[in-house]
Amino acid sequence: MRIDIPHPWPRTEADAIAIQDRLRALVDRAGPGPQDPRLVAGLDVAYAEGSDRVAAAVVVLDARTLEVVERATAVGEATFPYVPGLFAFRELPVLVEALSRLQTVPELLLCDGQGLAHPRRFGLACHLGVLTGIPAAGVAKTTFVGGYDAAALDPRRGAGAPLVDAGETVGRALRTRDGVKPVYVSTGHGIDLDTACRHVLALAPKYRLPQTTRLADRLSRDVLRAHATG
DNA sequence: GCGACAG
DNA sequence: ATCTTGTCGC
C-alpha cells in the first residue's frame, strides 16, 4: 500500500504542534470501525542506544486464530527527538515505511502508544489512522493524560474505567488479566472506544499486552539487532 | 513556579 | 526506548 505524508517534516516543536493541530480535524472519532475484522496489525519501534537507528515492525494477525498472516519491517534513523506529546514524529517515518511494504491491507491498526489520550488529542494512533485511512487505536502501557479511579477498577479481566482529561473521556484503562495493571486504550481514527477495547481484549487472551503488540515488539528488536550485527 | 511527561 | 540477575509464582 502507498502512504503519503501530507505535510512537510517538522524541524521544530512548534512546527510539529501546528501539524497536529491541523490534522486533528481529520480524525474520525465516531467509528464504529470493523466489528469482526480478520486482519489486525500491531506496530512497534525499537531503538538502539548509542545511535539514532530505529527499527519498525508491523505484524498482521488473523484476529480469530491469532496466527501471523504477514510481517513487514523497516530500519532507519530517528528524524525527531523524543518529546512527550510529539512522539509520533519520531516513529512515523519508519513505521510508514514498514506499512508500505505490506502486501495485505489490515482492517485495524493497533499502535504502541496513545490515540486521543494525548494533550492535544492527537497521539500516534490518530496520526497513523489519518495518514493511512485505516481504523486505528492506541494501546499504551502507561497513561499520558487522563486519570482514572484505580481503586475502583474491578480486578477482573475485562473490567474498564474511563480515562478522563479536562472533563472529557479520552480513553479507557482496560484490564486484560486478573489482578494485573491495565493497559490504556484510546481511539485513534475510525473506531469507537467500545469496539477498540473489545478487539484489544480478544487479542490479549493470555498476556497483559495484545499479541499484536508483543509480536511487533519482538520483531522490531530482532531486526534492530540483526542490522547492528550484520 | 515546579514537577511530570506515550516510547 | 534502553541498561540488566535473579527470583517469586502459576
Automatic annotation (TrEMBL):
Listed cofactors: Mg(2+)
Top-level taxonomic group: Bacteria
Main localization, broad class: cytoplasm
Keyword Magnesium: yes
One GO molecular-function entry: endonuclease activity
Site (Interaction with target DNA): 82
Record-listed Mg(2+) binding positions: 44, 112
Protein function: DNA repair enzyme involved in the repair of deaminated bases. Selectively cleaves double-stranded DNA at the second phosphodiester bond 3' to a deoxyinosine leaving behind the intact lesion on the nicked DNA.
HAMAP family, A to Z: Endonuclease_5
Protein name in the entry: Endonuclease V
The organism of origin for this protein: Streptantibioticus rubrisoli
